[in-house]
Amino acid sequence: xxxxxxxxxxxxxxxxxxxxxxxxxxxxxxxxxxxxxxxxxxxxxxxxxxxxxxxxxxxxxxxxxxxxxxxxxxxxxxxxxxxxxxxxxxxxxxxxxxxxxxxxxxxxxxxxxxxxxxxxxxxxxxxxxxxxxxxxxxxxxxxxxxxxxxxxxxxxxxxxxxxxxxxxxxxxxxxxxxxxxxxxxxxxxxxxxxxxxxxxxxxxxxxxxxxxxxxxxxxxxxxxxxxxxxxxxxxxxxxxxxxxxxxxxxxxxxxxx
Amino acid sequence: xxxxxxxxxxxxxxxxxxxxxxxxxxxxxxxxxxxxxxxxxxxxxxxxxxxxxxxxxxxxxxxxxxxxxxxxxxxxxxxxxxxxxxxxxxxxxxxxxxxxxxxxxxxxxxxxxxxxxxxxxxxxxxxxxxxxxxxxxxxxxxxxxxxxxxxxxxxxxxxxxxxxxxxxxxxxxxxxxxxxxxxxxxxxxxxxxxxxxxxxxxxxxxxxxxxxxxxxxxxxxxxxxxxxxxxxxxxxxxxxxxxxxxxxxxxxxxxxxxxxxxxxxxxxxxxxxxxxxxxxxxxx
Lengths: 257, 284
Known about the structure:
Chain A: Residues 63-244 form the ABC transmembrane type-1 domain. Chain A contains 11 helices and no strands. By secondary structure, chain A is mostly helical. Mean pLDDT of chain B is 82; it is low at 1-15 and 278-284. Chains A and B meet through helix 2, helix 5, helix 6, helix 7 and helix 8 of A and helix 2, helix 5, helix 6, helix 7 and helix 8 of B.
C-alpha cells in the first residue's frame, strides 16, 4: 500500500529533482540576500564546514565517541532484552507475573528516565550508556517475548515429544522460530538507541560527541555547525535503518518457505 | 493481549502458591487472576523497596523509602505545586496536539490528494521529518526562544508526522473499485470526497492521531527537560538539581500514569470507531 509515499518508483526522478530544486532555491535565496545568513547558512557554508571539520579531525572523533556509547548501550540493552524476553516467552507463568510490568513500563515516556539514571549512574558516560541501554531494552524484550510466546503449537509438541529440556527448546526451537519478530525488536531498538544517544548527550553532562556539537552550534550561534550536526544525526539514523533492513532481509531469506 | 491468551506452554517454574491462588479465583474468571498475577510483581518490588529502605541497604540519596516518596507526593498535592506543574504540562500537550493535528491533517490530505505535491514537496519534507525533532530542537531554540512557543512547536512537530503519514496514505489509497463506483455514479469531486474518500480514510486517520498523541507525551518530556520553568519535566530536573530523588520519582510516576491513561482512553475511542469502519466497508 501507499507505494508512492514510501518508495517512489525507480523511474520517477521527481523526488530527486525536488531535492535539487530545494537546494537551488536555498542557494538563490542567499545570493539575492532574501534570508538572514545568521539564521540560515548557505548550503555551501555547511559543506565548507564539513571539509574543515574533517581536515581537523574534530567531527570524526566526536562521531566516534558518540557511536561508541551508542553501540555499547545498544549491545547491553539488546542482550538484556533478548534474555528477559526469552524467559518471559518460555515460561507462561513468569510471563504472566512479570510481563504486565514490562508492558506498563514501556508506556512511560522514555526520557522521563533521564534524571533518575543521571542521579544513579552520574551524568557522564555510564549514565548515558545506561539510558541508551534502557532505550534498546524496551522494544527488544517485548518483541522477543511475543515472538517466543507465539511459537506454533506443532513445534512445541515436537519439542515436548523429543523431550527437549527448557534450554534445548529455547535454542533449537523457540529462538529460530521467533527470529523474525526478534529482529523487528532489534531494528526498533537500534533506532531508539540512536535517538537516546543524542538525547543523553543533550540532557546529561556535555562530553565530546555529536550532541555536544549540537549544543555548541546552538549556543555559539554557529549555524553551519548546527546544520552539519543535524545532517550527520539524520545520516547515521538513515544508515542504521538501511543496514538493519538489509540484514533483516538477508537473515530471514531462508527462514520463510 | 493475545500474549496472555496464547496456547498453554509448560509451566515447570510455577510457584505452588501462585497456582493455588489462581485456582481459588477461578470462579471470578481467568482475567482477574491474571490481573492479580500481573500486580504481584510490582507489589513484590514495592515490598523489597520498603524492606531495603528500612534495613538501610541503599542510601536514601540513591533510593528514598517509598514512604518518603508518598509523603512528598502528598506535600506536592497539598501545596498545589503538583497540580500547577501537571496543568502546565497538560496545556502544552493539548496546544501542541491541536497544532500538530491541524497541520498534519491539512498537509497530509493535500499530499494524499494532489499528486504534484506528493512528487515535488513531499520528498524534502519527508527527509526533514525523518530526523527526530530532538535534533531540531537546538535549532528551533534560536528561532523561537525557550518559552512556550518552542514547546508547542516541538510537540506539534512530533504529533504532525504520524498524522501526515496516516492521512496521506488513507486519502491517497482509495481502492480502485470505489473510485470507479464514484465515476459511474457521476459524483462531483466534493461528493466523492465526502461519500467515498472520507469514510474509508477515517479509521486510519484515527490511528495516526493516536500515534501522534503518544508522540506528544514523549516530546513533552523531552522539551521540558531541555528548557522549562514549570511542568512535570521541570519538576524532575529540579529534583535532580536539589538531589531530591523523591521529587524525581513522583514526577516520573505522574508522567507514567497520565501517559498510560491517555493511551488507554485513545484505544477506547479507536475501538469505538472500528465497528463503524467494518460496517461501511461491507455495506458498499
